[in-house]
Amino acid sequence: MTVRSGPPLLDLRNVTVFRGERPALDRVSLRIASGEHVCILGPNGCGKSTLIKTITRELYPVFSDDSSMTILGKDLWDVSELRSRMGIVSPDLVTERSGDATGRRVVLGGLFASAHTFPHHRVTPELTARADAALERLHVAHLADRPLREMSSGEVKRTLIARALVHDPHTLLLDEPSNALDIAAQLQLQAALRTLATGGLGILLVTHHVAEIIPEIDRVVLLRRGRIVADGPKASVLTQANLETLFGVPVELTARDGFFQIRRSPAPVNRAGRAR
Questions:
Q1: Contact 176, 91 (CB under 8 A)
Q2: Per-domain residue ranges for the chain?
Q3: Mean confidence (pLDDT) of the chain
Q4: Which CATH code fits 1-72+175-184+203-276?
Q5: Which terminus, N or C, of the chain has the lesser number of Cβ atoms within 10 Å?
C-alpha cells in the first residue's frame, strides 16, 4: 500500500444516515487515507449500500453539531467531478437498457457519468483511445465492439472496472464485485484487482464475502447494524470470534496464501446422531 500525502480519501465523524424511519448508519466515524487499501465487511442489511451511496453523494447525513464528512478534504462536491475522482464499480451501473451498448460505449460512459454513451455525447478520437486503453489494461480489448448482453458475467465485471479506470481515478470503489461470477471469473477478477492495487491505485472494497479480500488489502472495517464494530489490521480483525459476532452464526476461518475463507461450522451432533 502507498499512502499518499494530502487530505484523506474519506473522513466521517459521527455520521448518521436514515433510510426511512431508522438510521442505516448510526454515528459512524471512519477515516481512510489516500491510497489506502481497505475492506468494509458486513452482512446484508448492515449499512454497506448506505455507506456507498453516502460516499457517492446519493444519500446525505442528517445535520448534527458534532458530525462532519469530507471526501478528499472537501465537504461539497459536484457529483460528476467526484465520480471522476473515484472509480465506482457497482452492479447498479448495468440496466436493462445497457444491453445493446458495446464494451467501448460502456467504458466511454464513465467519462460522461452515464451508463454508456448517448447521441448527445461528443465522443472524440482522443476519448475513444482512452476507452480502448482502459479495456486493454484489463485485458479485455476484444470486448470493445461486443454488446454487453453477449458478454459473460466476468466480462461485464471487467468492462465495468475499465469504465471506472478510464478517467484515471484516485481510488477504485468496488461494491460486491464477485457477485454472479463463476470460479474462473472470480480468479480473473482477483488477479486484475491485485495488479491494480500493487500499481498504486487505492482500493475500497465493500462486501459481505471474506473470500473477496485480496492479500493487498491490509485493513478491514467490520460493519454491523449501521455501526462499526471493529477496525484495524486485517490479521487482528479477521478472527473467528469477530466473524461469528458479525454474521451471527458459528463459523470456521481458514487462511492460505494471503486469502481468508469462512464457512458455517457444522452443528454439534448428540449421541443419537441428531444435530443439536
A1: yes
A2: 1-72+175-184+203-276, 79-169
A3: 89
A4: 3.40.50.300
A5: C
